[in-house]
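the two lines:
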Amino acid sequence: MTQANAYAAHSDQSGLAPLTLERRELRSDDVAISIDYCGVCHTDIHFVQNDWGMTQYPVVPGHEIVGRVTAVGDGVTGFSQGDIVGVGCMVDSCRECEPCRHGLEQYCLEGPVLTYNGQDRHDGSMTYGGYSEAIVVNKDFVVRIPERLDPAAAAPLLCAGITTYSPLRHYGVQAGHKVGVIGMGGLGHMGIKFARAIGAEVTVFTRSEAKVSEAQAQGAHHVIVSTDDAQMQAAAGYFDYMLDTVPVQHDLNPYLSLLRHDGTHILVGLVEPIEPTVHAGNLVFGRRVLAGSLIGGMPETQEVLDFCADHDIACDIEMLDIRNINEAYERVKRGDVKYRFVIDMATLREIAT
Amino acid sequence: MTQANAYAAHSDQSGLAPLTLERRELRSDDVAISIDYCGVCHTDIHFVQNDWGMTQYPVVPGHEIVGRVTAVGDGVTGFSQGDIVGVGCMVDSCRECEPCRHGLEQYCLEGPVLTYNGQDRHDGSMTYGGYSEAIVVNKDFVVRIPERLDPAAAAPLLCAGITTYSPLRHYGVQAGHKVGVIGMGGLGHMGIKFARAIGAEVTVFTRSEAKVSEAQAQGAHHVIVSTDDAQMQAAAGYFDYMLDTVPVQHDLNPYLSLLRHDGTHILVGLVEPIEPTVHAGNLVFGRRVLAGSLIGGMPETQEVLDFCADHDIACDIEMLDIRNINEAYERVKRGDVKYRFVIDMATLREIAT
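prediction for all of em together
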């Protein structure tokens, strides 16, 4: 494969536009994938806008990728042409450090190679993501999409799904636990589904009375309007876990006081300084824990896909024509999507032909 | 018992002065104790100075109490006259809530009754602490001091000891783990001893080169001067646990980055807002945990005393004449004590006679 059509952001503009780019030749342990669907993650927007000051243009976003195998390298035995497969946030890691050896490639001591805006460990080339007709990825970072899953709705499981599934498992959420889910976007609505499937009692926190019925429709057993002091106070000390998916700064203290002793507040969306700051007493006086979690490793990424197939769980998506990507970004920024845009890559092929 | 001589702080002064106070009559489940020793905790100073705005004067501080049983109520079977016993930070709790039923009275949902400046659950009277000749305490909040322990050096185990022992156990420190201890005061030096006794590799963090040999003498396998950037950077990602005993605001971020993935930073000293604030990325990108812990429950308070007897562990103390208590407070504030003052209550009896 020599060329693929993609949508890229360039340094002279924040919007995305068509681009023709080189995809690397197949290595012996590579899988070539024709992309059918790619989810739109808020992280894509951060990279396009260079919000974190680390974008190298041109950048092709997209790390919730589902497609069909078109070719495999000589050394690949697990995948064959025609297989429906997925690629998430990582495409390589050192494979040798302790986290890598334990299937926690996201915490690779040398840093995982990100699916886009990353640097290939072999030839130093930049990685390009899933807003594209095709991608070539090392076999160990390709997962199988179970047949029972709708491929389009499975795409967001590769970031939004694994990001919420992994911490619920790691921090020990079990049937009967009381789990609060803060935020009801792409991550939050998946958190509700997973916590329910595990058997937990799920309470959604929303700032708006108008979203109560929506939260119930998503499967929440209870809904608390976080701007209602009486509702918040009535829940003091009630929860075993909070799954906090809010990606912007917000006050954690009111939520910490809703945890019982030994409760755990899990951050998966916030990667900024915590403002307003946490009062240490909220941790000390209840032996509470403030925890973080980042996506999930490759074994667990396969696990979440299988879990979703077993439990009939899918992401709620809105299918997107790639020509409307810039408008979609504006809607994501406003929280105006239920709950994840997924690009139908057929629309990219229409432009290219 | 009707009267006991004590040292109390009054609302018109910050220093301590002699006082004669009523001790309650023995109830059927009470133990009356003649106090021999009482440790001086920084918390005592906070209460005397009303730093937390909750002091009710007169306050008799002291919650690291060791003495001899002088009488027991009709319903007491576990203690007899002459037994060497201890009283820590709590003297009662609701006994019925879930934390209480699990021996975690410090997290009692109604709040434990503190040893001083607390309110008796039966008659509403104020509780008075251990800077006193005598105390009357419910049997369930009295622990046995093992014979092998020096009673004076055992006193600080009832706060400084249990406060550091409990989180090492609860958060799962085991032999071979790499544990950092931040702060080398009353709490920190006990943390070193406990972590070593468990079989962990212990590193002490100190701001001063001058304290390196002192830390080694305390049993530290390694010492890192935290003001030396090179030493700090060389330890990035090294530690499984940090036991943070620093009671004043300090930047946690440099320490968080020294934790490996899944590492745990345990706060036991800080009960203020965390300033500077924690960067959420330091938790998310390594699945790290920021945790709190408060003293320990009654079963574990007995456990730490037995553990110290089994492992020949004692607090390093400086014996104090109660007439020098105000000077001792100034020295505690300056960190000028190795590592805990313990009041010899014989000096109070000299004044009283």
